């Protein structure tokens, strides 16, 4: 994981984004936010499992389906299986050591 701090690379409303192997952060202090970093580490694992390109295709597909279903970009985002897993498990610092392969499928 390579942490990069650059507020200009992120859109309004984003604190950070994972694009393997980078985690781009809007603010320097986010480097010390254990929950946020763990959340992004979970995304990095998901990305590797799906060989990067399939992660982004799946993510985008779930987002579009959620946008149609909920009529809200924020609700669509929160209902993406990758986000549901990351938000639920971000408080567990040991989660990645015992996480099963393709665990995000439990959050569909």
Number of helices, where a helix is a run of at least 4 consecutive DSSP H or I residues: 5
Q: State the helical fraction.
A: 40-55%
List unreliable stretches of 5+ residues: none
Biggest sheet, spatial arrangement of strands: 1-3-2
The biggest beta sheet reads: 3 strands, mixed
Tally of DSSP β-strands: 3
End-to-end gap: 26 Å
Specify the structural class. Answer: mainly alpha
Question: What average pLDDT do the residues reach?
Answer: 97
> What characteristic shape results from the CA principal axes?
globular
* Rg measurement, Å: 14 Å
Count of discrete structural domains: 1
Oligomer: single chain
Spell out the helices and strands N to C: EEEHHHHH
Overview of the structural elements:
Keywords: Membrane, Transmembrane, Transmembrane helix. The chain crosses the membrane at residues 50-68. The protein has 108 residues and is mainly α. The protein has one domain (2-107). Helix content is 49%, strand content 11%. The protein is built from five helices and three strands; from the N terminus they run E-E-E-H-H-H-H-H. It has a three-stranded mixed β-sheet with strand order 1-3-2, with helices on one face. A hairpin with a 2-residue loop joins strand 2 (16-19) and strand 3. The two termini are 26 Å apart.
